[in-house]
Amino acid sequence: MSRYDGRGGNGGNVYLVPSTSMAFIDIKKELGGKSKVKAQSGGHSQKVRLVGDNGEHTYVKVPVGIEAVDMERNVLLARCSRPFQKYLIACGGSGGNARNHYKGEPGEQFDISLHLKLRPNVGLVGFPNAGKSTLMKAFVPRKSIKIAAYPFTTTKPQVAFWVAEKRKEDEESDFTLSIADLPGLIEGASQNRGKGYQFLKHLEYADVLLLVVDCLGFQLSNKPGEPFRSPLEVVALLNHELENYSKKLVQKPALLVLNKIDISPDKEEPSRLAEKLRSLDWPLQLPEKLRPRFPLQFDYVIPISAKLGEIEELKRALIRTYRNLHPSEVPQDLLEDDDKSLL
């Protein structure tokens, strides 16, 4: 149709659309088992219709928090963080016209990988065997959580929903926080040692970080040369891993719990350590090589026994911290004097 200066329609685009009701496992069903997604081609120009119709766009639903990465260039194409917003992944090609000698242009084509990042209200951070899963169990006793006395019991992120009990019968709904228990980090996690990237990425969207530290210290194994770390050193090393992965993580509100006080031989030591860590200059108590560049400033430092379920003070601290971030989301019933029982 060049003699009539006809124009072919443009090809459709491919978009990702985040949905709050979709899980990662549902993506395969959304694609109908196919591994290739394409939009409709543009329509041809005709004698009776010189301008062809544009091709229809293709929309693929994905869970909120999905990131689409071009596998060949390792480039982020889209970070799908806002529900129901359309994220452009691939543009359709231009239809045939005088500028391209009436030969339609191919659309963009990518091989992409999809990565899901959780969006918990609270992200648990700690070295292996610090008691994170036990703490999760203390928050949500009815959830099935694997707990054992050896490192790396948690092998993939677990999410539970803690529901604060109503204090008034006429309240419309409970106050709920989602809590993500991540597998234990190890030194070098921010350089992807021990699959650190796969775990740290889930903290990017967390509202609050909750560091869980064994008040007795930590040693990964009894192998020769494996260093023992004091609780203060553990806090510093966790701080290092967070800041090395992303400085934004150490800017988030953070709480610290010193766990396992029920088995501490010196019952006063956890309280003394907590007092040190509440100070703004807590890193100065460490050798210079262990001091983090961007020290975490903890809203609360609380000695606890997750095993015995002694976490009432921690529950109140989490509510206060979350209230400061999202005051409209916390029921007025939970904003009463802190001297009163919140739960």
- Order of strands across the main sheet: 8-9-7-10-11-12
CATH superfamily of the largest domain: P-loop containing nucleotide triphosphate hydrolases
CATH domain class name of the largest domain: Alpha Beta
Radius of gyration over alpha carbons?
26 Å
Q: Count the strands?
A: 12
- Helix-strand category: alpha/beta
Q: Level of helix content?
A: 10-25%
Principal-axis shape: elongated
CATH topology of the largest domain: Rossmann fold
Number of domains: 2
Could you report the average pLDDT, rounded to the nearest whole number? 84
InterPro entries: G_OBG, GTP-bd, GTP-bd_Obg/CgtA, GTP1_OBG_dom, GTP1_OBG_dom_sf, OBG_GTPase, P-loop_NTPase
GO biological process, one term: ribosome biogenesis
Family: Belongs to the TRAFAC class OBG-HflX-like GTPase superfamily. OBG GTPase family.
Keywords: GTP-binding, Nucleotide-binding, Nucleus, Ribosome biogenesis
